[in-house]
Amino acid sequence: MARIKLDLPEHFSFSTELRVRITDVNYGGHMGNDSLLGLLHEARVRFLAHYELSELDIGGVGIIMADSVIIYKSEAFPGEMLNIAVTATDFNKYGCDFVYRVTEQISGREVARAKTGVVFFDYQKRAVQKTPQSFLALFSSNAAV
């Protein structure tokens, strides 16, 4: 089976810290994959809030998840503080990717790389929408629409 590769951008526009909780640990004694996806979601919400946006209001529309990729580089354990860097990239007519770099704060050990692809979505109309120009402008150096 071919392995997925995810190249990281040179620059991340935001980072936040989140601690691995005991409830994030699976039977293997390390953070479970479902928990990491939840931590990425929290980091994305914080990222958007940093720009005074929310998942339901980015230039008047929301986002809906299209896909996700997680590539694990090492285990994470209860009590460890993770630094999660986030940026928006790979813009297209209807969406973009949020890319994440997850490292353990003290050692700098890379824990994971991830990407969540989103589509801009009007929840009232239940319809896909074009990428808001105001959001695109925030990340114009990462945009190629």
Average the pLDDT over all residues and give the rounded result: 94
The CATH class turns out to be: Alpha Beta
N-end to C-end Cα span? 32 Å
Fraction in beta strands: 35-45%
Helix and strand pattern = EHEEEEEH
Task: Please provide the count of β strands.
Answer: 6
Global structural class: alpha+beta
Low-confidence segments, ≥5 residues, pLDDT <50? none
Total of DSSP H or I helical runs spanning 4+ residues: 2
Helical content band: 10-25%
Largest sheet: 6 strands, antiparallel
Q: Name the shape in a single word.
A: elongated
Give the tally of structural domains: 1
CATH homolog superfamily: Hotdog Thioesterase
CATH topology heading: Thiol Ester Dehydrase, Chain A
Q: Rg to the nearest angstrom? A: 16 Å
> What's the CATH architecture?
Roll
Produce the secondary structure layout.
Elements: E1 14-19, H1 33-50, E2 62-72, E3 81-89, E4 95-104, E5 110-122, E6 127-128, H2 133-138
Antiparallel strand pairs: 1-3, 2-5, 3-4, 4-5, 5-6
Question: What this model shows, in words?
Answer:
This protein is of the alpha+beta class. It has one domain (14-142): Hotdog Thioesterase (Thiol Ester Dehydrase, Chain A), CATH 3.10.129. It is 17% helix and 35% strand. The chain has helices at residues 33-50, 133-138, and strands spanning 14-19, 62-72, 81-89, 95-104, 110-122, 127-128. Strands 1, 2, 3, 4, 5 and 6 form a six-stranded antiparallel beta sheet that branches.
